[in-house]
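PROTEIN DESIGN WORKSHEET
SECTION A - STRUCTURE
LENGTH: 337
C-ALPHA COORDINATES:
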Protein backbone atom coordinates (compact mmCIF):
# COMPACT_ATOMS: atom_id res chain seq x y z
CA UNK A 1 0.00 0.00 0.00
CA UNK A 2 2.85 2.37 0.83
CA UNK A 3 4.59 1.67 -2.47
CA UNK A 4 1.40 1.77 -4.53
CA UNK A 5 0.44 5.16 -3.13
CA UNK A 6 3.73 6.95 -2.49
CA UNK A 7 6.63 5.48 -4.53
CA UNK A 8 8.32 8.52 -6.16
CA UNK A 9 7.05 9.08 -9.68
CA UNK A 10 5.05 5.84 -9.73
CA UNK A 11 2.75 5.80 -6.71
CA UNK A 12 -0.81 7.02 -7.00
CA UNK A 13 -0.19 10.18 -4.97
CA UNK A 14 3.17 10.76 -6.66
CA UNK A 15 1.99 10.73 -10.27
CA UNK A 16 0.20 13.41 -12.28
CA UNK A 17 -3.31 11.93 -12.53
CA UNK A 18 -6.18 14.28 -11.66
CA UNK A 19 -7.55 12.32 -8.66
CA UNK A 20 -10.00 14.87 -7.19
CA UNK A 21 -13.18 16.07 -8.89
CA UNK A 22 -16.94 15.73 -9.05
CA UNK A 23 -17.28 13.97 -12.42
CA UNK A 24 -15.44 11.07 -14.11
CA UNK A 25 -15.36 13.17 -17.29
CA UNK A 26 -12.83 15.44 -15.58
CA UNK A 27 -10.41 12.51 -15.35
CA UNK A 28 -10.85 12.37 -11.58
CA UNK A 29 -11.22 9.25 -9.44
CA UNK A 30 -13.25 10.40 -6.43
CA UNK A 31 -14.79 13.46 -4.82
CA UNK A 32 -14.09 14.69 -1.30
CA UNK A 33 -16.31 17.00 0.73
CA UNK A 34 -14.51 20.27 -0.20
CA UNK A 35 -14.87 19.49 -3.92
CA UNK A 36 -18.52 18.60 -3.39
CA UNK A 37 -19.45 21.99 -1.90
CA UNK A 38 -17.62 25.02 -0.46
CA UNK A 39 -20.10 24.91 2.42
CA UNK A 40 -17.96 22.17 3.93
CA UNK A 41 -14.98 24.46 4.45
CA UNK A 42 -17.11 27.44 5.43
CA UNK A 43 -18.76 25.37 8.14
CA UNK A 44 -15.54 23.78 9.38
CA UNK A 45 -14.11 27.30 9.68
CA UNK A 46 -16.36 27.98 12.68
CA UNK A 47 -14.63 25.18 14.60
CA UNK A 48 -11.17 26.22 13.44
CA UNK A 49 -11.86 29.82 14.48
CA UNK A 50 -12.94 28.73 17.96
CA UNK A 51 -9.90 26.47 18.27
CA UNK A 52 -7.49 29.24 17.25
CA UNK A 53 -9.07 31.48 19.87
CA UNK A 54 -9.09 28.85 22.64
CA UNK A 55 -5.49 27.84 22.01
CA UNK A 56 -4.11 31.35 21.48
CA UNK A 57 -2.54 30.44 18.14
CA UNK A 58 -2.64 31.97 14.65
CA UNK A 59 -1.49 29.13 12.38
CA UNK A 60 -3.55 26.50 10.58
CA UNK A 61 -1.89 23.24 9.53
CA UNK A 62 -3.50 21.03 6.90
CA UNK A 63 -2.30 17.50 6.19
CA UNK A 64 -2.88 16.09 2.73
CA UNK A 65 -4.50 19.17 1.22
CA UNK A 66 -5.65 17.46 -1.99
CA UNK A 67 -6.63 19.98 -4.64
CA UNK A 68 -6.28 22.91 -2.24
CA UNK A 69 -10.04 23.43 -2.16
CA UNK A 70 -10.38 23.10 1.62
CA UNK A 71 -7.48 25.48 2.25
CA UNK A 72 -9.07 28.14 0.07
CA UNK A 73 -12.45 27.72 1.72
CA UNK A 74 -11.00 27.93 5.22
CA UNK A 75 -8.85 30.97 4.48
CA UNK A 76 -11.77 32.87 2.92
CA UNK A 77 -14.22 31.89 5.66
CA UNK A 78 -11.82 32.66 8.52
CA UNK A 79 -11.17 36.10 7.01
CA UNK A 80 -14.92 36.70 6.82
CA UNK A 81 -15.21 35.74 10.50
CA UNK A 82 -12.48 38.22 11.41
CA UNK A 83 -10.14 35.45 12.60
CA UNK A 84 -6.46 36.21 12.15
CA UNK A 85 -4.49 33.52 10.36
CA UNK A 86 -0.85 34.52 10.10
CA UNK A 87 0.21 31.32 8.34
CA UNK A 88 -1.51 28.40 6.62
CA UNK A 89 0.93 25.52 6.42
CA UNK A 90 0.31 22.50 4.22
CA UNK A 91 2.14 19.21 4.84
CA UNK A 92 1.84 17.06 1.72
CA UNK A 93 4.02 14.26 0.35
CA UNK A 94 2.80 14.70 -3.23
CA UNK A 95 4.81 17.07 -5.43
CA UNK A 96 2.20 16.99 -8.20
CA UNK A 97 -0.60 17.86 -5.78
CA UNK A 98 1.54 20.61 -4.30
CA UNK A 99 1.76 22.26 -7.74
CA UNK A 100 -2.03 22.11 -8.06
CA UNK A 101 -2.44 23.56 -4.58
CA UNK A 102 -0.03 26.39 -5.28
CA UNK A 103 -2.02 27.37 -8.36
CA UNK A 104 -5.34 27.20 -6.50
CA UNK A 105 -4.06 29.24 -3.54
CA UNK A 106 -1.93 31.80 -5.37
CA UNK A 107 -4.29 34.64 -4.40
CA UNK A 108 -3.50 34.06 -0.71
CA UNK A 109 0.16 34.95 -1.21
CA UNK A 110 2.99 33.96 1.06
CA UNK A 111 0.72 33.25 4.02
CA UNK A 112 0.46 29.73 2.57
CA UNK A 113 3.57 27.62 3.05
CA UNK A 114 4.37 24.02 2.07
CA UNK A 115 6.35 21.44 4.01
CA UNK A 116 7.19 17.85 3.12
CA UNK A 117 7.53 16.72 6.73
CA UNK A 118 6.62 17.73 10.26
CA UNK A 119 8.87 20.26 11.98
CA UNK A 120 10.36 19.40 15.36
CA UNK A 121 7.85 21.65 17.11
CA UNK A 122 4.60 23.23 15.93
CA UNK A 123 1.78 25.37 17.26
CA UNK A 124 -1.67 25.94 15.80
CA UNK A 125 -4.81 24.14 14.69
CA UNK A 126 -4.35 20.97 12.63
CA UNK A 127 -6.94 19.86 10.06
CA UNK A 128 -6.92 16.56 8.17
CA UNK A 129 -9.76 15.60 5.80
CA UNK A 130 -9.50 12.04 4.46
CA UNK A 131 -5.86 11.73 5.49
CA UNK A 132 -5.87 8.84 7.97
CA UNK A 133 -7.60 6.45 5.54
CA UNK A 134 -4.69 6.78 3.09
CA UNK A 135 -2.06 5.72 5.61
CA UNK A 136 -0.78 2.20 4.85
CA UNK A 137 -2.25 -0.65 6.89
CA UNK A 138 -1.22 -4.22 7.62
CA UNK A 139 -3.57 -7.07 6.75
CA UNK A 140 -4.29 -9.84 9.25
CA UNK A 141 -6.09 -12.99 8.16
CA UNK A 142 -7.48 -15.71 10.39
CA UNK A 143 -7.56 -18.89 8.33
CA UNK A 144 -8.54 -22.22 9.83
CA UNK A 145 -8.30 -20.72 13.30
CA UNK A 146 -4.69 -19.47 12.91
CA UNK A 147 -3.63 -15.85 12.39
CA UNK A 148 -1.41 -14.79 9.48
CA UNK A 149 -0.07 -11.53 8.15
CA UNK A 150 -1.13 -11.16 4.53
CA UNK A 151 1.48 -9.65 2.25
CA UNK A 152 2.15 -9.15 -1.45
CA UNK A 153 4.55 -11.13 -3.65
CA UNK A 154 5.34 -11.27 -7.34
CA UNK A 155 2.92 -13.60 -9.05
CA UNK A 156 4.83 -16.88 -9.61
CA UNK A 157 3.54 -17.77 -13.08
CA UNK A 158 2.49 -14.44 -14.59
CA UNK A 159 3.00 -10.72 -14.56
CA UNK A 160 1.46 -8.93 -11.63
CA UNK A 161 1.09 -9.62 -7.93
CA UNK A 162 -0.33 -12.24 -5.57
CA UNK A 163 -1.23 -12.49 -1.90
CA UNK A 164 0.89 -14.58 0.41
CA UNK A 165 0.28 -15.35 4.10
CA UNK A 166 2.88 -15.96 6.79
CA UNK A 167 2.38 -16.85 10.46
CA UNK A 168 2.44 -13.88 12.80
CA UNK A 169 2.18 -12.96 16.45
CA UNK A 170 0.24 -9.83 15.44
CA UNK A 171 -3.44 -9.69 16.43
CA UNK A 172 -6.29 -7.22 16.15
CA UNK A 173 -6.51 -4.97 19.24
CA UNK A 174 -9.63 -6.80 20.41
CA UNK A 175 -10.57 -10.46 20.19
CA UNK A 176 -12.67 -11.34 17.17
CA UNK A 177 -15.18 -13.89 18.42
CA UNK A 178 -15.94 -17.03 16.46
CA UNK A 179 -13.67 -19.38 14.56
CA UNK A 180 -14.65 -18.43 11.00
CA UNK A 181 -12.09 -17.13 8.49
CA UNK A 182 -11.65 -13.42 8.96
CA UNK A 183 -9.72 -10.65 7.19
CA UNK A 184 -9.05 -7.26 8.79
CA UNK A 185 -6.47 -4.50 9.18
CA UNK A 186 -4.33 -2.96 11.87
CA UNK A 187 -3.10 0.64 11.65
CA UNK A 188 0.41 1.04 13.13
CA UNK A 189 1.35 3.88 10.77
CA UNK A 190 -1.70 6.04 11.51
CA UNK A 191 -1.24 5.47 15.24
CA UNK A 192 2.47 6.32 15.00
CA UNK A 193 1.54 9.49 13.12
CA UNK A 194 -0.76 10.51 15.97
CA UNK A 195 2.00 9.89 18.50
CA UNK A 196 4.44 11.99 16.48
CA UNK A 197 1.90 14.78 16.08
CA UNK A 198 1.22 14.77 19.82
CA UNK A 199 4.94 14.94 20.54
CA UNK A 200 5.52 17.93 18.27
CA UNK A 201 2.31 19.93 18.73
CA UNK A 202 3.23 22.00 21.77
CA UNK A 203 0.21 24.33 21.65
CA UNK A 204 -3.03 23.95 19.73
CA UNK A 205 -5.67 21.46 18.64
CA UNK A 206 -6.29 18.92 15.87
CA UNK A 207 -9.38 17.74 13.97
CA UNK A 208 -9.54 14.73 11.65
CA UNK A 209 -12.48 13.91 9.36
CA UNK A 210 -12.63 10.48 7.79
CA UNK A 211 -14.70 7.35 7.29
CA UNK A 212 -14.46 4.64 9.91
CA UNK A 213 -15.75 3.13 13.12
CA UNK A 214 -14.94 2.69 16.79
CA UNK A 215 -13.07 -0.51 17.62
CA UNK A 216 -16.11 -2.58 18.59
CA UNK A 217 -17.69 -1.97 15.18
CA UNK A 218 -14.43 -2.19 13.24
CA UNK A 219 -13.64 -5.69 14.51
CA UNK A 220 -17.21 -6.96 14.58
CA UNK A 221 -17.32 -10.69 13.81
CA UNK A 222 -19.54 -10.05 10.79
CA UNK A 223 -17.03 -7.62 9.21
CA UNK A 224 -15.03 -10.58 7.94
CA UNK A 225 -13.78 -9.16 4.63
CA UNK A 226 -11.93 -6.14 6.00
CA UNK A 227 -12.35 -2.58 4.77
CA UNK A 228 -9.62 -2.10 2.13
CA UNK A 229 -11.10 -0.47 -0.96
CA UNK A 230 -9.81 1.06 -4.20
CA UNK A 231 -11.18 4.03 -6.14
CA UNK A 232 -10.73 4.92 -9.80
CA UNK A 233 -12.93 6.95 -12.17
CA UNK A 234 -15.59 7.21 -9.45
CA UNK A 235 -15.87 3.44 -9.28
CA UNK A 236 -14.91 1.30 -6.28
CA UNK A 237 -13.31 -2.14 -6.29
CA UNK A 238 -11.72 -4.43 -3.75
CA UNK A 239 -8.60 -5.50 -5.65
CA UNK A 240 -5.51 -3.49 -4.69
CA UNK A 241 -3.26 -5.83 -6.72
CA UNK A 242 -4.57 -4.66 -10.09
CA UNK A 243 -3.65 -1.38 -11.81
CA UNK A 244 -1.13 -0.67 -9.06
CA UNK A 245 -0.27 3.03 -8.90
CA UNK A 246 -3.25 4.01 -11.04
CA UNK A 247 -5.92 4.00 -8.33
CA UNK A 248 -6.39 5.02 -4.74
CA UNK A 249 -6.17 2.42 -1.97
CA UNK A 250 -7.82 3.16 1.37
CA UNK A 251 -8.91 1.49 4.59
CA UNK A 252 -11.47 2.66 7.11
CA UNK A 253 -10.17 4.31 10.26
CA UNK A 254 -10.25 2.62 13.66
CA UNK A 255 -11.10 5.75 15.65
CA UNK A 256 -10.54 4.01 18.97
CA UNK A 257 -6.95 3.33 17.99
CA UNK A 258 -6.51 6.94 16.87
CA UNK A 259 -7.99 8.26 20.13
CA UNK A 260 -5.79 6.00 22.28
CA UNK A 261 -2.65 6.86 20.30
CA UNK A 262 -3.32 10.55 20.83
CA UNK A 263 -4.17 10.13 24.50
CA UNK A 264 -1.18 7.91 25.23
CA UNK A 265 1.07 10.58 23.74
CA UNK A 266 -0.45 13.35 25.85
CA UNK A 267 -3.34 14.80 23.84
CA UNK A 268 -6.85 15.23 25.26
CA UNK A 269 -9.85 14.07 23.21
CA UNK A 270 -12.24 16.98 22.64
CA UNK A 271 -14.95 14.86 21.09
CA UNK A 272 -15.96 12.30 18.49
CA UNK A 273 -19.17 12.31 16.45
CA UNK A 274 -20.64 11.80 13.01
CA UNK A 275 -19.80 14.29 10.28
CA UNK A 276 -23.48 15.20 10.05
CA UNK A 277 -23.74 16.13 13.72
CA UNK A 278 -20.41 17.98 13.65
CA UNK A 279 -21.37 20.14 10.67
CA UNK A 280 -24.84 20.86 12.02
CA UNK A 281 -23.28 21.89 15.34
CA UNK A 282 -20.97 24.24 13.43
CA UNK A 283 -23.80 25.98 11.58
CA UNK A 284 -24.22 24.17 8.26
CA UNK A 285 -27.96 24.86 8.19
CA UNK A 286 -27.36 28.61 8.20
CA UNK A 287 -25.08 28.30 5.17
CA UNK A 288 -27.63 26.08 3.41
CA UNK A 289 -30.43 28.59 4.02
CA UNK A 290 -28.35 31.24 2.29
CA UNK A 291 -27.63 29.04 -0.75
CA UNK A 292 -29.55 28.28 -3.92
CA UNK A 293 -31.65 25.10 -4.19
CA UNK A 294 -28.85 23.44 -6.17
CA UNK A 295 -26.26 24.45 -3.56
CA UNK A 296 -28.45 23.14 -0.76
CA UNK A 297 -28.86 19.84 -2.58
CA UNK A 298 -25.09 19.41 -2.84
CA UNK A 299 -24.57 20.30 0.82
CA UNK A 300 -27.20 17.75 1.83
CA UNK A 301 -24.82 14.98 0.69
CA UNK A 302 -22.58 15.96 3.63
CA UNK A 303 -25.22 15.11 6.23
CA UNK A 304 -27.55 12.50 4.74
CA UNK A 305 -27.22 9.32 6.77
CA UNK A 306 -27.02 7.06 3.70
CA UNK A 307 -24.28 9.19 2.14
CA UNK A 308 -21.43 10.98 4.01
CA UNK A 309 -23.29 12.02 7.14
CA UNK A 310 -23.00 8.81 9.16
CA UNK A 311 -20.09 6.91 7.61
CA UNK A 312 -17.75 9.89 8.07
CA UNK A 313 -16.73 10.81 11.61
CA UNK A 314 -14.85 13.70 13.20
CA UNK A 315 -12.44 13.41 16.11
CA UNK A 316 -10.86 16.36 17.90
CA UNK A 317 -7.83 16.67 20.17
CA UNK A 318 -6.37 19.44 22.32
CA UNK A 319 -2.98 20.11 23.84
CA UNK A 320 -3.46 20.64 27.56
CA UNK A 321 -6.81 20.97 29.31
CA UNK A 322 -9.83 20.18 27.10
CA UNK A 323 -12.47 22.80 26.29
CA UNK A 324 -16.01 22.67 24.90
CA UNK A 325 -15.58 22.44 21.14
CA UNK A 326 -18.69 23.61 19.28
CA UNK A 327 -18.50 20.73 16.79
CA UNK A 328 -19.22 18.22 19.55
CA UNK A 329 -21.85 20.24 21.44
CA UNK A 330 -24.56 17.69 20.59
CA UNK A 331 -24.25 14.06 19.56
CA UNK A 332 -20.81 13.41 21.04
CA UNK A 333 -19.96 9.69 20.87
CA UNK A 334 -16.68 9.67 22.73
CA UNK A 335 -18.15 7.07 25.08
CA UNK A 336 -18.30 4.58 22.18
CA UNK A 337 -14.55 4.67 21.54
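SECTION B - SEQUENCE
RESIDUE ASSIGNMENT:
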Amino acid sequence: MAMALYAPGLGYYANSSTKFGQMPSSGSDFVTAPELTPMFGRTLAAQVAQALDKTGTDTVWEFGAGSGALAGQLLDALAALGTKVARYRIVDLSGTLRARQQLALAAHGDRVEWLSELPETMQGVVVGNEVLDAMPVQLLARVGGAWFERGVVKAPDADGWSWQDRPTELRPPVEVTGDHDYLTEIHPQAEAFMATLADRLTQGAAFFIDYGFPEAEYYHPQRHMGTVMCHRAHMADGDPLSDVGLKDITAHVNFTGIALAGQNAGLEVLGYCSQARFLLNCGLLTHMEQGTPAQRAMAAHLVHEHEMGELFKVIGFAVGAPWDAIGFAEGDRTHTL
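SECTION C - NOTES
The longest strand covers residues 201-213.
The radius of gyration is 20 Å.
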